[in-house]
Amino acid sequence: MKNTIELINPENIVEMLVVGINAGNIKQELPEIMQEPHDIMQSVFDVIIESINRSDLATTRHGLRKLYLRIFKFLPIEGDDDRIYIFERFLNKIKRASLIAIQKEDEGILYEIINVIEEIGIKICDGYSKTYFFQVINILSFIGIRSIEAELEGTTFWVFDALGNIGRKAASNEMKEETESVILILGRLGIIAISNKSNSGFIKLIKIFDDIGKIAVEKGLDDVCSKIANGFCILYEDVPALLLKEVIEGMVITLGNIGESAANKGLYATSYIIDALEVVGKKAAQNKQKQAIRLIIRSLENIGKSGKINGLLEAEDKANKIMNQLQNNL
């Protein structure tokens, strides 16, 4: 039995409110049942929002985590449409909470929110509906865009990190479509980060693509490797001259490593990675970046050799042709 002082504690209030959610009353969230102003989740979010306004990290973290675990416990009700509707309402409330934190520029609170969303995303990779997955990565995309616009470098970095961890998990579980969607969102955020001169997110992006690419090759996810190569091409076109020198070597090394591994596996994505290296090579030649050109030639040489051994003769021919063209710029 809690005494009066203990009951005033926000975390204890959250605990009592969350425990009150059960398989019966969670159905009251459904549009054909719900009678406004009743909203079984809102009482918990009222405490969470107040915690955000007071920059109370512990209660924000505790409230979000307890609520999502409780909702997941009772999500398997009558049908998929019902489950998705309730989950979407939950994420919309998190979205509103994140907006308040962004307006306050409270990166401590945003860190807690992003951590919980990441935890949900990774949990969803283990057997939950694809719709849940796409809802989670879309809300991370939303927070990422707003944080870039607000010049919240820490939050931008954490969003990239969360998407990267979810993408790694999806790739490890051979969730092709989901992994590709993460790559596309990361690519869009990368372009926005570049246009807003947010360098930290872009540097992080290279590492994430490298990690997901390695997993994709290991799992034989050709299309995922191709999406990464295409993503690099699109991003590279938008990289400003001031940032170019800083990122080009990382991009080339990443593409080279993924390309060589793909060639060793005999994946058709090898050809797309060679195309991406050609795009990077042309821009490096325009900017007279000889060190980058040397790295590209070395990568193409390794990919070509691996391609030949594994029967990818077209890839070998293409790599040799590009190498010869780039040699003229040294």
Number of strands: 0
Low-confidence stretches: 1-7, 33-37
Shape: elongated
Mean pLDDT equals: 84
| Structural class determined from secondary elements | mainly alpha
Give the helix proportion (percent range): over 70%
Which percent range describes the beta-strand content? under 5%
What is the N-to-C order of secondary-structure elements (H for helix, E for strand)? HHHHHHHHHHHHHHH
Largest sheet at a glance?
A: none
From the alpha carbons, calculate the radius of gyration and give it in angstroms. 24 Å
Q: In whole angstroms, how far apart are the ends?
A: 78 Å
What is the number of helical segments per DSSP (H or I, 4+ residues)? Answer: 15
Write a brief structural summary.
The protein is mainly α. It has helices spanning 4-8, 10-19, 42-53, 57-74, 80-104, 107-124, 130-149, 153-172, 176-195, 199-219, 222-238, 241-265, 269-286, 290-309, 313-327.
